[in-house]
Design a protein that fits this description.
By secondary structure, the protein is an alpha/beta fold. It is built from nine helices and seven strands; from the N terminus they run H-H-H-E-E-H-E-H-E-H-E-H-E-H-E-H. The protein starts with 22 loop residues before the first helix and ends in a 12-residue tail after the last helix. It has a domain of 176 residues: 3-Layer(aba) Sandwich (Glycerol-3-phosphate (1)-acyltransferase), CATH 3.40.1130. Strand 3, helix 5 and strand 4 form a beta-alpha-beta unit.
Length: 287
């Protein structure tokens, strides 16, 4: 998918990007991604080096986007989302180049531009990078504190997410339902991680019903998504594991006339059953 592709762009099936134009840099990156499993110390060293190179590049890309954010904020909403997408595109491909983290997609992403509610597994930072590449102007449900982060928070604000105060109890649900309804009326995808936070590989959090409730109240469809990104980039881990992440798209779930609790249970059952079949090169997610 290109930088400025719209709603009807073809779906990614496997991560692809042009090769590095600098032969010397390409040779260095290839060497860094070589398998050093025969020596644990060397393996960890190169893993740390690759991750450091990724982080450095990520921040340089982000800093380069600072003046762009100010300009983009003045543009109309649909164009604004598409102008912010290149940062995510560069982030996931830079991760591929430096750390060897690729991806493939199983299933089909809707291309009708109608939007809906995405309920996805949350194991890693990676899925927050890839979803804006795959969906046109998605609205993430996130904790309000993230909006206060310098530079990163500014970029989030431009995309008009649903920022809620998670300590507000019932009021947090009200914020989700009110802001979520507005985003759905705009034809956008609202992306929700029903477990609320990142879970470790092999673990399951409690699936909160807010996403299903938002969908039923607005007659919106639900798209469940499972993936094994936690095997490549575990929660709290600096070092990334070279592998191909599988992003599995589920069947669209219509919500009209159904109870939110039943839908939530169906989504949980589908996601967790898929998680049990997704490969993970190593269950050891230690740093």
């Amino acid at each position: 998918m290109g930088f400025f592709s719209g709603r009807n762009a073809p779906t990614h099936t496997e991560s692809q990007a042009p090769s590095c134009p600098n032969p010397r840099l390409s040779a260095i990156l290839t060497k860094l991604k070589a398998n050093h499993s025969g020596n644990t110390v060397v393996h960890k060293f190169f893993g740390l080096l690759r991750a450091s190179l990724f982080n450095l590049g990520l921040w340089l890309i982000l800093l380069a986007y600072v003046p762009i954010i100010g300009i983009v904020a003045l543009t109309p909403a649909p164009l604004r989302y598409r102008l912010m997408r290149p940062w995510n595109w560069m982030a996931v491909h830079w991760l591929r180049m430096t750390c060897g983290v690729r991806w493939k997609i199983e299933g089909e992403l809707p291309q009708d531009g109608l939007g809906g509610v995405v309920l996805a597994k949350h194991q890693s930072t990676w899925e927050t990078f890839i979803f804006p590449v795959l969906f046109d102007g998605p609205a993430f449900v996130l904790k309000r504190e993230l909006m206060r982060l310098p530079i990163f928070g500014w970029g989030l604000a431009v995309n008009q997410p649903i920022a809620i105060d998670r300590s507000a109890g019932r009021d947090a649900l009200r914020q989700l339902l009110e802001q979520g309804a507005e985003r759905l009326k705009q034809g956008r995808w609202v992306i929700i991680f029903p477990e609320g936070t990142r879970t470790a590989v092999g673990e399951r959090g409690k699936y909160k019903p807010g996403g299903a409730l938002l969908a039923t109240q607005n007659g919106a469809r639900i798209l469940p998504i499972a993936h094994n990104a936690g095997c490549a980039w575990p929660r709290g881990s600096f070092i990334k594991t070279p592998m191909t992440i599988t992003l599995r798209i589920g069947p669209l779930i219509e919500t009209e006339g159904r109870k939110a609790s039943d839908i939530n249970a169906e989504v949980e059952q589908w996601i967790e059953s898929q998680m049990a079949t997704l490969p993970c090169p190593s269950k050891d997610t230690s740093k």
